[in-house]
Amino acid sequence: MNICLIGDSLTSLALAKNLINKNIKVFVYYKDTKNSSFQSRTIGISKNNFDFFDKEIIKFKKGMFWKIKQIEIYSEKLKDEKILNFENNKEELFLIAKNNEIYELLEKDLKKNKLFKKILIKNNNFYKKILKEQKYELIINCDGNNKISRNFFYNKINKSYNSNAYTTIIKHQNIKNEKAIQIFTKMGPVAFLPISNSETSIVFSIINKKVILNENEIKNLISQYNENYDIKSFGKLEKFELNFSVSRNYYYKNLMAFGDSLHKIHPLAGQGFNMILRDINILSKIIQDRIDLGLQIDHSIYEVFEKKTKHFNFIFSSGNDFIYEFFKFDNKYKNNYLNQLVKFLGENKLFNKIASKYADQGLSI
């Protein structure tokens, strides 16, 4: 059995490894982009998704991830007052890992596997050719910016946040560092995400990208909202644009969209990669069911996958977008009614339980 994946993103490599674990031969076609990987970008993985990744994709190396046992959410309008607090003393709420370290772990493992082959896309004729070839049971496009996405998966709900996210890693004094902090500021949300007792990842989403800030100004803003760390140094500051995108169609003939080709959401709650891992989990189960029953694996599974994920993914991504817009709207006004409402809900144990489950497991039947 041969499966073709287009794109060599973290999503593509994670899916490839999962398929190879089922003894399926995987061909990854990729473009030689000169862009360097984001060294300061980190990924938040829910406990549920971490267990799936560790068991069904590849085992994490010791020290690659950091456990978060508490999440505190603040609004600049309420100064030092917490509006939401999630805490679990028994086990972690989610885990943080460096994007490039997970990528390198997968890449190194796949290169040694005989079922894996990586092929460079030399020109745009590849895309026309791949559609005509019959040598792959499945062709899955994981690249949201290539010709296939533009030609066949262009029917999307798109939205620009008109903002940029800045990421960096700060080094600080050695402390017990198990608490993630999100602050909704007048400039945009800033997240402090621990990755060790002496390092913390920062994601600062500046609301208006027309506001030009230099590196020192961004660092000063981070320092302004930091109340927990004695910052010794800043790592490389990196920037990327923020957009919302949800595809209306999941497949076309023998092609299926996946990962960023299906959905992109605001990194606000760290749920982008979690959505993708849940999609891999569902697709993996569909394929495994076919294997167990001795049934043929072909593009008829695309429809099954779409029915199981499309509506839940749309609701989940829209919910994430609503949270961002809610606090953005609230910051425009001087009263604190909306923040006080969120604080009131956060004090409700049932709301806390539902919100934690939503972040960990997403939406499912």
UniProtKB/TrEMBL annotation:
InterPro entries: FAD/NAD-bd_sf, Squalene_epoxidase, UbiH/COQ6_monooxygenase. GO terms for cellular component: membrane; mitochondrion. Gene3D superfamilies: D-Amino Acid Oxidase, subunit A, domain 2, FAD/NAD(P)-binding domain. Residues 137-335 form the Squalene epoxidase domain. GO terms for molecular function: flavin adenine dinucleotide binding; squalene monooxygenase activity. This is Squalene epoxidase domain-containing protein. It comes from marine metagenome.
